[in-house]
Structures are given as structure tokens and as C-alpha cells.
Amino acid sequence: MQTKDFSGIRNNGPLPSPQEVTVPNDIGDLLADYIESIGSQLENLEGTALAYEAGNNRQANAAKVRRILHKIKGESGMVGIDEMSDFCHQAEDAFEEFSEDKRPDMLLRFKDWACAAIQNMANQMKCN
Amino acid sequence: MALNVLIVDDSSLTRKAIKRIIGMINETTDLGIGQFLEAGNGCEALKIVNESHVDLILADLNMPEMGGAEMIHRIKNNESTKSIPVVVISTESKTVRIKELLAEGVKNYLHKPFTPEEFKAIVHELWNKTTAEAVDLLTRALSQALETTAYSMIMPIDDDMVIPEKTMLAEIGFMGPKSGTIQILAGVQLSKVLAENIAGLSNVDDKNACDALKELANITCGLFLPMVVSSTADLFDITIPTVKVCDNSEQWNEFIAVQDSCVLNIEGHAVAIKLVIEN
């Protein structure tokens, strides 16, 4: 399988299509749990990114962002959705590289892409 | 004979994924895994460890309330839980932190996501300690048994210790996650001294010496097995010890020539111990 390039999240470049995320065939009933868990964490990420942007408790919110990205990366890796895990890794790096004012937009872009990928997985699951 | 595994991770999805991977391996290769226990953080894990029978802990590091490092520190500093093997499963990549955890007593480290093969290798490593490690543990168990039961002092190995000619060979078997035999070879003279100490007899005969050596083998085995698998309750069957008397002085030399044997000096008398693992 060809590795997808997610470096666009770090340099504001293009990202692969969220419709093309590879889901392992043997994931079974873990997929429904995965979609639910990641969906809830992305909602949490959006709220935290907006609070960060508003300047409320910046340090605490930055720590929360790191925890959420770390958790999404870990869970994606554990169920074998490696592309999402790679994407999180790039987003984690971007968060450390970016200045405070650029971080919220990057996080919201990450969230939109990941939500689209999750939605696509949910649709595929319904079809199957 | 099943081994209970405690999975500590704040993500229920990750816990489920870990159970699934282990379950898949256990179906094809019998790892002896029994019940899965789950905790969402270190606090919950400590409660489970204190209340339930746990043979292996798989722990994440970054968790709310109490993280993995704090939990491991508490487990390893508690007499009743310190022997439970802990394997860290995390995305943590800082080698300094991993080294610190290994120094704290963590058995191994698995990077998330791990493959079934990686997990299989770790479980095999845990249950099948190297023979050298096992012999070392056995020697410790014998030393402890001698010191606490027979009130005999272990001395450094020296050239003056008496190498026995007429010997008694005690043998005791154990069956469970590991199966094998423990053999203790001692001189009749020393066995009589042990009989005097263990049974409090003044005029001991060969039968008393045999009984004392059997008792010593039994106690050594009882001390050794928990060192190999953290908790032995219901995990092992132990055979009744037997003793053979041998007048052939060659027996000692043959016994200690084997790589997996170890010699101790008990108050000037040489004693040898050997571990034979069958699986």
C-alpha cells in the first residue's frame, strides 16, 4: 500500500482525499466503536481549538489538544487505520511548529478532514 | 491453569482492540490466557490488583487521574503486588522515559500499535524465563528455604567446603504454565543436619534425613513457583517429593557438570540444585 502524504497539514498544502482512507478488512465490530470514539474526540477537539483561539487558559487547552491528538493517533493505530494515525502524527508536529495564532486554523482543518473520513467510514459500514 | 490479564488504558476502544488481538493469538497459539480485567486509569488498576488475582498487567502511560508511571511505581513498591509482571503499551517514544520504567521493574515495552507477533514474543518471554534466570530464582528459593526452615547459613563458595560422596537426590515435579522438575543433591551428612534443624531430632537416621530433604524440596518448590509466575494459586500441581540415596561419588560430578545446575555452600557442605524444564 502506498503511503499517503499528509504533510499538507504542516505547510497548508493539499491533503489526500478523506474518502480514500483504508480500513482493514478484519476490523469487524471495532469499526463502529472507532467511529463513535473518534467522532466524540473530534467534537472535543473543535471546542478546545475554539477556546484556545479565544485565548482562554491557553496552556491548559494546548495540553488538552495534545492529549486528544495523541489519543486519536493511538486508537487509530490500534485498530489498524494507519493513515489516520499518520495524519495525527503530522498534526501533532504541526501544532508544535506553528505559532499560537496559526494553531486553531490547523486544528480545525484537521478536524474537518478527519470528520469527513469518519463520515465516509460510517457510510461504507451502513452499505456493508 | 489460565492466566489473568489486566489491561489498563483510558480508551475503551484500545482495551477492546488489545483484547481482540490477544484473543486471536490465543485461539491459534495457546498462551494460557484466561480472564481479561480492565481499568481506565491507574487508580482503578490498583483497586483491581489488590482485590483480584492478576498475572500480567498491560498498561498505557498517559491516562487521566493516575498515569501509568505512578501506577507502576506503586505496584512495584508494594510487597504483595511487586512480582506481577507489567508490560507498558504506549505510543511513548522517549527512550529515557522507557529506560526509567524498565529500571522501575517494568518487564517490557510494546509500542502502539503492536503486532500479534510482538505480543506473542513478550508473553513467551514472560512465561518462559531464560533457564539462567530460572536457575538463579531457584537458587534464591533454596537459600530462603534453608535459612527460614532449617536455620542453615549460606556461605560463599570456597575450596574447603565438603563435596559429598554418599548423596541423597530429592526430586519434586510441578505442572502448570511451566512444567518441570526441581532436583536437590545433598550429602547424607548434611541431610542429617537439616533433619536435626527441621524436625528438631537429636539422633537422626537415614530415613529422617530423607524426610528432611523431601521437606526442603517441597518448601523450595513452593517458594520458587511464585517467583516464576506472579501468583501460583491454582496454577500449579506439585508432585510428592521423592529421595534416592546414592553411594556413587560420580553422581555429584555428573550432576554439577550440567549447565543448568548451581552449587551452594551450606555451612561448609556443598549442595547442588538443578532445574529441568519440560515445556
Q: Helices, strands, pairings?
A:
The complex is a heterodimer of chains A (128) and B (279).
Chain A lengths: L7 H4 L18 H24 L4 H22 L2 H16 L5 H25 L1
Helix pairs in contact in A: 2-3, 2-5, 3-4, 4-5
Chain B lengths: L2 E6 L3 H17 L4 E7 L2 H10 L4 E4 L8 H9 L9 E5 L4 H10 L3 E4 L4 H12 L3 H19 L4 E2 L11 E9 L4 E8 H12 L6 H23 L8 E2 L3 E5 L3 H8 L3 E6 L2 E9 L2
Parallel strand pairs in B: 1-2, 1-3, 3-4, 4-5
Antiparallel strand pairs in B: 6-11, 7-8, 7-9, 7-10, 8-12, 11-12
Helix pairs in contact in B: 1-5, 2-3, 6-8, 7-8
Task: Please give a structural write-up.
The complex is a heterodimer of chains A (128) and B (279). Helix content of chain A is 71%, strand content 0%. Chain A has 128 residues and is mostly helical. Chain A has one domain (27-127): Up-down Bundle (Four Helix Bundle (Hemerythrin (Met), subunit A)), CATH 1.20.120. In chain A, helix 2 (30-53) runs antiparallel to helix 3 (58-79), helix 2 packs antiparallel against helix 5 (103-127) and helix 3 packs antiparallel against helix 4. Chain B has two domains: 3-127, 3-Layer(aba) Sandwich (Rossmann fold), CATH 3.40.50.2300; 131-277, CheC-like (Chemotaxis protein chec), CATH 3.40.1550.10. In chain B, strands 6, 7, 8, 9, 10, 11 and 12 form a seven-stranded antiparallel beta sheet that branches. In chain B, strands 2-1-3-4-5 form a five-stranded parallel beta sheet. The A-B interface holds A 28, 30, 33-34, 37, 67, 70-71, 73-75, 77-80, 85 and B 10-14, 16-18, 20, 60, 62, 90-91, 112-113.
